[in-house]
Amino acid sequence: MVPTDREISIPKIQYRFYPSDSLAQMAFKLGLVDILENTLVNDEMIKWSNLSVKEVVHKDRWVGVFFNNTKLDKPTRQALSYGIDKSRWKNRTLGPISDQSWAFNPDIKYYEFDLAKARSKKPDEITLTTFPVFQKFAEEIKSDWEKVGIKVNLSIVDSMPEDFTALVLTQATPIDPDQYALWHSTQNTNLPHYNSPRIDKLLEEGRKSKDRLNIYLDMQKYLLEDAPVAFLFYQTTYTIVRK
What angle do CA 239, 138, 58 make, to 5 degrees? Predict the structure, then answer.
């Protein structure tokens, strides 16, 4: 027997869209929504006892400190990288290519926290820019750099700045290790304004050579040596459901 329309009960699901994670989380706290999908970190909320929390680590998306390479030279970028204690974060990323990729190179410079190396070429003062969702991480980096002896001005913005010195940001990466768009000096999507003829050549060769593995292994090694970015951790998102 086929049920009639009156006998079929279809639950209604209402979706609400918010322009930022902070506003969506505020709506959740106020009881306007009962489920948040793929929201970014909120240490306060994920500890609530009446919630079901599912954590997802995105190996195709990492968080790092982008250094403006036109303002900070290589020794300074290296010093700033050494000045961040990355052991506080789980799911650490070491470089631009995921550790799950066939092209990942583990033989690269890790920039473990080293106070002496951080102080060797540190700037006296720096402005660290980020967005509200990454403010907690930026404050931790600020604390580390201040211990090194750097005066850090923290700038929280709501949109991508036209100019910056150091910027905490997340970066999505393609499945294929070709990262021409991210690091080639000709690309507008090269956020840190990184300019390396060696890396340019490797990225160009990687698009046409049959020996791609060795090319991308070299690309990672030389890019980490130049430290255009301090690589921190793979981004984690949460699906939070009210019980």
Answer: 35
